[in-house]
Amino acid sequence: MRSITSPENPNIKLYKNLAGSKKRRRESGMFTIEGVRLVADALAENVKLHSVFVTESCMEKILRGETVIQREALDFPVGRSDTDGTEVFFISDSIGNKMSSTDNSQGIFAVCCGLDKLPISDTIKNGGKYILLHRIQDPGNLGTIVRTADAMGVDAVFLAECCDLYNPKTVRSTMGSLFRVNISETELDEVFPIFEKACVPTFAAVVDGNAESLTDCDFSRGGAILIGNEGNGLPKEVSDMCGKRITIKMNGNINSLNAAMASGIIMWELVK
After folding, report:
1. CB 108 within 8 Å of CB 202
2. Integer CA distances (angstroms), 167 to 30, 61, 95, 139, 191, in order
3. Residue 160 to residue 151: CA distance in whole angstroms
4. Which residues lie across from 231 on neighbouring strands?
5. d(CA 217, CA 246)
6. Separation CA 158–CA 208 (nearest Å)
7. What is the pLDDT of residues 58-73, one digit of tens each?
8. How many whole angstroms from its chain centre is CA 249?
9. Cα separations in angstroms, 215 against 152, 154, 211, 247
10. What are phi and psi of 139, to 5 degrees?
């Protein structure tokens, strides 16, 4: 394990650049994670890691067996899983605090290589259950939806014109589900013909009292549910692409829900 003593070290700069720049993440095909749980989940799912950074305080906890990460898990052989190898760096608590995007740093960070995902045409199957998100803009909402999809056992989540999946806030909000859920970025005109070919029914989630109530829908043949932007929902030309329009019937004067909350209710009905 090599020590890094300067915040100007190129490896520290790489981490900070990736954490702060969507463009840099896209160009490099890498992204960052922070925290014991996320790093542990990445290790458990055999995610390819470019580098890991551990502070003095965190390493002490690891050695005392006070975290879910075992010391042996940080012993990476050179050339691991067709990469150039994963390097583990020992850093000071002060450098860790400068790297952290949270108020209470847990002292462990990693640079991840891009996640391997199945082609969309191999993901969509007859009888499958899918969530298609259109222009979701809040990273916290996106991460929560991915986490809920993991909990509900949804087959895949597709993103059309959404915020960056690898934004640190999105990644943190997934609570490790990012490494388990099949997620793909797509275009609507690319994915809808595949749904049609696989005979997967499509549903547009809308705020409209005239749409069919979610609880009355028949999802026995599976389905793909399209969920729109937090503030504007789905444009009419987009909802019209679906075979059916569905809505969550609400009481009182409430006429809409948070996108992540609505998605969770919809996924529960989809899979139950």
Report:
1. no
2. 11, 28, 21, 7, 24
3. 22
4. none
5. 8
6. 24
7. 999 988 888 888 777 7
8. 28
9. 17, 18, 12, 9
10. -60, -35
Q: What is the largest CA-CA distance in the chain?
A: 63
Taking only the tens place, the pLDDT of each residue in 120-175 is 999 999 999 999 999 999 999 999 999 999 999 999 999 999 999 999 999 999 99
Single-letter amino acid, residue 266? I
